[in-house]
Amino acid sequence: MAAIQAARLLSRRAHVLPGQLHITELFFEVPKNHARPDAGTLKLFGRSVRKNDRPIVPLSAADLAAKEKLPYLVYLEGGPGFGNREPQNHSLTQVALSRGYQLLFLDYRGTGLSTPINADSVLAQGGPQEQADYLKLFRANSIVRDLEAVRLCLTQDFDDDKKAWSIFGQSFGGFVSLTYLSKYPQGLREAFLTGGLAPINRSADDVYAATFQTVVRRNVAYYRKYPEDVASVRRIVSHILSSPGGAIPLPSGGSLTAPLFLTLGIAFGAHGGLDEVHSLVLRLTTDLDASPTEGTFTRASLAAFESQIAFDTHPIYAILHEAIYATKQTGAPPTNWAAYRAGKALLPYAWLANPQGFLQSTPGSEPLHFSGEMVFPLHFSGVAGPELARMREAAELLASTAEWDEDLYDEEQLRRNEVPVYAASYVDDMYVDFGLARETAGLIKGIKVRESNGWYHDAVRSRSEEVFGALFKLRDDVMD
């Protein structure tokens, strides 16, 4: 693996939250393409966090310097395509600080306050092929090179035994962690993964064949909990289909169509997700009851819907969602909208191809199934917002790409792994299939896994105390 040059620190600004945290805001510069350092640069933004202690006896200069060189734990966010929350609002912060780490929350390239990905920045690269080539630079292989470059920058004057850092990857952050373990294990002290054991040996087709089955089960659970929503969902879908053009304008520029409405099931994979969807269904049906002509959803309700499908404001999530499963292997097929192909072949999801015909051909007592964490061509048609529509040609090219420059994982390296890895894996995970995750765990030498059927994919946030406790028990080896 080619050596990485240290990132260039552009600015550092420290803030103290009284009695709580010492936060330093950091901007770095890294190559846009690490294989071609002369091809331009990108900016990365991060926040380092440590305790803001007020000891009885003031710390000496040496003690203060030592606090700045505590071992790092780096949080790797899920997605792809999302930046980090404020450290004071993050469930990991106090847990990590209490265990002697300092934390780093680094926004991946293209996310948060790092150099952004949006329609303007992508279209500025040139034609559709240049746009697609640019977007390829935002996969996990580039992210881990950024991370390694930042590590070299921040730890250059650390003692040798503190230069390696720990990583904590949630969801897609776990995928990034496995790429890091594959390519730069020398930079890692340990790795924690939650809901992030990526399906290393599997194609996008395999992934969606598995995850659709879990989504079907979550739909069954939804309608078992809210049986009245069988009629309510059909009523909403029928109303949308009967609107002019089969669409209702959304406040931010997209259109509420029947298929877009039925993508709300993405929430089913989180704790409280069934209730979240029911609340919106109830809100929309209440609008219809209140409208004299049964023809109006309120702006507030439409805005609430938009907040559930915010791909237009996080375009990497949509445009690279299937690319995270793409492989360099010669002869491997392109992803080619794998989720769409897998879904429309299943009877409950025939609405993907013909929503009007599906509604008319099914009995009124039959529930309409929501999809899950899947991205379809319809998201780039303009209904999900104008940003994605402007990148449609680049998205089509990425979907048709048969060969990629680099594989994201090195199986042989993972089989001889020497970095301690601690993972939480969820039996009922709707986003990262449990069976495929177990296959991956079997590849990684020395991994310790806590498997649970009591947590969903977002447990690191909604059940944080339980998850952190389980992972640190694995780390501390309290079980014989």
UniProtKB/TrEMBL annotation:
InterPro entries: AB_hydrolase_1, AB_hydrolase_fold, Peptidase_S33, Serine_prot/Carboxylest_S33. Residues 73-221 form the AB hydrolase-1 domain. The keyword ATP-binding does not apply. It holds the Pfam family Abhydrolase_1. One of its GO terms (molecular function) is peptidase activity. Coiled coil: none annotated. PANTHER family: 2-SUCCINYL-6-HYDROXY-2,4-CYCLOHEXADIENE-1-CARBOXYLATE SYNTHASE, PROLYL AMINOPEPTIDASE. Belongs to the peptidase S33 family. This is Alpha/Beta hydrolase protein.
